[in-house]
């Protein structure tokens, strides 16, 4: 069916949205009945055969004709067929059904081509949702008039299935995107803002409140935020949403939680259990209830021979009744029904409910029921499956096969035992697997929580937690080595999925295994830099530095010093990395450390020459190209310091080609920034501007991973454009930079501070320029950094512009004021003309 709305009587059928409206009110209609209606109105006045309707509503599935009769009956009830003389669907005995009401196809305006899909990061549903069409339709109406809706219901009721189903059908209503935030792995309320910012694609930077960037980001955007599993963090989520909703008038928020957030603008949508029939009833009546329909469809997916009959009807209905219509419990039950039969399944379920009555009476009744379901399902697992289940449950945010093996194996059995058990857990719906090229496994929240309880009961929690920490330690060691031999995209794709596991392990090994903590913190820096998790990286390194006493092995201290230098540590840190790598005789580490010494602006020429000599002495042509590219950087720094700018540019061109060939995009962008500086030093301002614009284009496209070069390039290119009286182009670039950095934060302020001051001076805001020069001077002093050619030129030009306008005493006062500014305050002052 095409996307033209179809009208008949008081109804409008919107096929592409799977929505039937009576006036402006959604009509509650099950998915099967909707498919039958759509098939009939496509051919009004014609007889549509029973086989055709069954194929439409139950594709590739054998069902009895009675199921069709049930759905047609439900359709007639929904339409009020026969009431007030209105007739819609007539039965043609022995043949099928005929839609007899007049039908009008509405014309719609079409664009030349389909609009682009709304960006989102939704989880992908691999099975069809059943019994929630009315809930999705109601949410459409709720979110059209209310800005914050919370889906409230018991654990396992289906909240996390309904929310993405709503978005899949209605994403086009939010042209600026949909952000999915899963709080299941967030345990600290203080990290809720960071989780929200990450889902929105906002970079988190040290000492910057994530709300500063988020409030600017939501602005006038028409977007939807979906927050899943909020029940354990309701206060923090409520505080965050109150601020975001005030800042974004077009923002809509959908939350799933076992309890309301409890503040005034929230509207509650209670998700009820699936419909369960009462006994006695017929097969047809039972299948019209969503709980029975769900159970039967899931069982049929496993065993095509299964049918609901008068013989198993009572047991099936009682199963759904005992499970309170909770979708998760029903799906778990379906996995075992082919093995035990309906009556055997019911008998197991009964015994587990009786056992639970002696449990903790402080728990809500709905948790008693869900826990009973999970305990019953767990009892059906083989012993190997139980052991693997409880041990892999220690993982956070999912796991791969390698981590499962390390967590679950005792060494007494082969790896296939672990893999076979994991396969059984997947079949029994305890563990989910994605369809990625490298499979990744995840738990349902309830299943993982119960598995962790059994881990404690088995007395294995501490031992398995240690295995997890050791596995993450080994993984991060491998990650650091792989960084130098792997393209950036492949490196991030391999190791970023383990970020939650890494964080969880760091929280434990800090006290239990400080040596592991230091190694993991240092090894994680390349990954955290690529993900722009700078604040997090700084915090890890600060703790690691405190743990790295004299007793720490020299090799670990050397790696730690190198990682601190890579993250922007001072000259002393970079020189310590060189010294320590010399002591442990690690030539490659020494070579890399020399780059971070040589390329610091405050290093004197003599030291650069020493690093070049060291580089030439230890260089091995067999090292990875990403490492050798740093050696070129050392040589280029010497050329630049010697005033051989043309030679430096030529060498940089070769390094850029080298890095592009190996997929080292971060290194390419960094080299482009150095080329811009050297080109400017050559006196070719036009070429420097062109290069700066190219860097800005690349950085904006790559978003979070390359922020230092973007900050420098945008600022100084805008500065050069203003100096050349190209004010329109400068304004456009500065506006883009201001918008981007207000969204992502203000990293590496010292690299752009002099450019900020010149932007203000060229805009004739001389007081602001003097304040920003004070800010820039203080940043360079505290960071032990000298200025490069662009920064020096910017500062010199600022002083020329302000000296004839501001008296010396007043200028001193303004510069003193600048020394007290925080980076975000300085950035706002500098970019005041560009309010985006």
Layout of SSEs?
Elements: E1 6-8, E2 11-14, E3 19-22, E4 25-26, H1 31-42, E5 47-49, H2 50-57, H3 65-79, E6 89-92, E7 96-99, E8 104-105, H4 133-145, E9 148-152, H5 159-170, E10 178-182, H6 192-199, H7 210-218, E11 224-228, H8 234-247, E12 252-257, E13 266-270, H9 283-287, H10 290-302, H11 313-322, H12 327-334, H13 337-356, H14 365-379, H15 383-392, H16 401-408, H17 415-427, E14 431-433, E15 441-443, H18 445-457, H19 461-483, H20 488-495, H21 499-512, H22 514-523, H23 525-530, H24 534-547, H25 554-566, H26 571-583, H27 587-598, H28 605-618, H29 625-641, H30 645-661, H31 665-681, H32 685-702, H33 707-723, H34 727-744, H35 753-762, H36 766-782, H37 789-803, H38 808-818, H39 823-830
Parallel strand pairs: 9-12, 9-13, 10-11, 11-12
Antiparallel strand pairs: 1-2, 1-8, 2-3, 3-4, 5-7, 6-7, 14-15
Quick check: average pLDDT? Answer: 81
Shape: globular
How big a fraction of the residues is strand?
5-15%
- Global structural class: alpha/beta
What would you say this structure looks like, in words?
- It is a single chain.
- Strand 11 (224-228), helix 8 (234-247) and strand 12 (252-257) form a beta-alpha-beta unit.
- The protein has 836 residues and is of the alpha/beta class.
- The chain starts with 5 loop residues before the first strand and ends in a 6-residue tail after the last helix.
- The radius of gyration is 32 Å and the shape is globular.
- Strands 4-3-2-1-8 form a 5-stranded antiparallel sheet.
- The longest helix has 23 residues, at 461-483.
């Amino acid at each position: 069916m095409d996307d033209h709305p179809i009208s008949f009587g008081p109804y409008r059928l919107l096929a592409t949205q799977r929505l039937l409206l009576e006036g402006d009110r959604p009509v509650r209609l099950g998915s099967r009945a909707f498919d039958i209606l759509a098939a009939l109105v496509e051919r009004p006045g014609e007889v549509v055969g029973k086989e055709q309707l069954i194929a439409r509503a139950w594709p590739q599935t054998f069902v009895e004709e009675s199921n069709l009769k049930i759905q047609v009956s439900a359709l007639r009830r929904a339409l009020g067929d026969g009431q007030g003389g209105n007739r819609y669907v007539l039965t043609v005995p022995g043949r099928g059904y005929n839609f007899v009401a007049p039908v009008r196809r509405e014309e719609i305006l079409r664009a030349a081509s389909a609009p682009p899909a709304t960006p989102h990061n939704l989880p992908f549903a691999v099975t069809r949702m059943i019994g929630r069409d009315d809930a999705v339709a109601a949410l459409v109406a709720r979110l059209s008039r209310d800005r914050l809706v919370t889906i409230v219901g018991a654990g396992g009721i289906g909240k996390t299935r309904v929310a993405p189903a709503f978005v899949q059908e209605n994403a086009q209503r939010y042209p600026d995107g949909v952000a999915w935030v899963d709080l299941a792995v967030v345990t600290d309320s203080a990290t809720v803002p960071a989780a929200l910012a990450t889902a929105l694609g906002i970079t988190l930077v040290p000492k910057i409140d994530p709300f500063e960037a988020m409030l600017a980001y939501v602005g006038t955007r028409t977007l939807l935020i979906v927050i899943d599993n909020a029940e354990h963090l309701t206060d923090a989520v409520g505080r965050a949403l109150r601020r975001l909703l005030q800042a974004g008038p077009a923002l809509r928020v959908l939350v799933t939680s076992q309890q309301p957030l409890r503040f005034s603008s929230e509207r509650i949508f209670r998700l009820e259990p699936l419909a369960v029939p009462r006994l006695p009833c017929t097969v047809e009546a039972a299948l019209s209830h969503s709980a029975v329909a769900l159970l039967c469809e899931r069982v049929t997916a496993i065993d095509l021979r299964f049918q609901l009959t008068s013989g198993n009807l009572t047991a099936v209905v009682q199963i759904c009744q005992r499970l309170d219509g909770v979708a998760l419990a029903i799906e778990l039950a379906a996995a075992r029904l082919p093995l035990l039969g309906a009556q055997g399944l019911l008998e197991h379920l009964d015994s587990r409910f009786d056992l639970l009555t002696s449990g903790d009476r402080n728990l809500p009744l709905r948790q008693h029921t869900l826990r009973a379901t999970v305990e019953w399902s767990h009892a059906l697992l083989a012993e190997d499956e139980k052991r693997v289940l409880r041990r892999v449950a220690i993982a956070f945010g999912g796991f791969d096969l390698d981590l499962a093996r390390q967590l679950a194996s005792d060494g007494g059995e082969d790896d296939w035992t672990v893999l076979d058990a994991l396969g059984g857990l997947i079949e029994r719906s305890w563990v989910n697997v994605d369809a990625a090229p490298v499979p990744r496994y995840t738990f349902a929240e309830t299943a993982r929580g119960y598995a962790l309880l059994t881990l404690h009961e088995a007395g294995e929690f501490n031992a398995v937690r240690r295995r997890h920490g050791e596995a993450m330690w080994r993984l991060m060691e491998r990650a650091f080595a792989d960084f130098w031999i792997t393209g950036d995209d492949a490196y991030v794709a391999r190791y970023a999925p383990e970020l939650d596991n890494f964080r969880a392990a760091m929280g434990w090994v800090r006290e239990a295994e400080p040596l592991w903590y230091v190694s993991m913190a240092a090894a994680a820096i390349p990954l955290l830099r690529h993900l722009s998790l700078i604040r997090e990286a700084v915090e890890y390194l600060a703790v690691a530095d405190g743990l790295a006493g004299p007793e720490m092995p020299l090799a670990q201290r050397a790696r730690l010093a190198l990682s601190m230098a890579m993250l922007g540590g001072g000259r002393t840190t970079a020189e310590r990395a060189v010294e320590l790598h010399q002591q442990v005789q690690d030539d490659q580490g020494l070579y890399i450390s020399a780059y971070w010494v040589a390329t610091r602006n405050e290093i004197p020429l003599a030291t650069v020459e020493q690093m070049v000599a060291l580089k030439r002495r230890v260089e091995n042509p067999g090292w990875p190209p990403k490492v050798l590219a740093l050696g070129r950087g050392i040589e280029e720094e010497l050329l630049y310091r010697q005033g051989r700018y043309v030679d430096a540019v030529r060498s940089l061109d070769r390094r850029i080609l080298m890095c592009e060939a190996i997929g080292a995009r971060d290194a390419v962008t960094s080299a482009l920034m150095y080329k811009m500086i050297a080109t400017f030093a050559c006196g070719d301002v036009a070429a420097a501007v062109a290069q700066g614009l190219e860097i800005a284009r690349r950085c904006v496209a790559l978003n979070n991973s390359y922020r230092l070069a973007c900050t420098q390039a945008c600022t100084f290119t805008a500065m050069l454009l203003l100096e050349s009286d190209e004010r329109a182009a400068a304004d456009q670039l500065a506006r883009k930079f201001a918008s981007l950095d207000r969204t992502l934060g203000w990293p590496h302020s010292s690299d752009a501070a002099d450019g900020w001051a010149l932007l203000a001076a060229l805009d004739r805001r001389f007081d602001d320029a003097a304040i920003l020069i004070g800010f820039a001077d203080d940043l360079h002093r505290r960071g032990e950094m000298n200025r490069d050619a662009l920064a020096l030129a910017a500062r010199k030009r600022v002083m020329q512009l302000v000296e004839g306008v501001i008296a010396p005493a007043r200028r001193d006062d303004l510069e003193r004021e600048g020394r007290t500014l925080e980076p975000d305050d300085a950035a706002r002052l500098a970019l005041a003309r560009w309010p985006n």
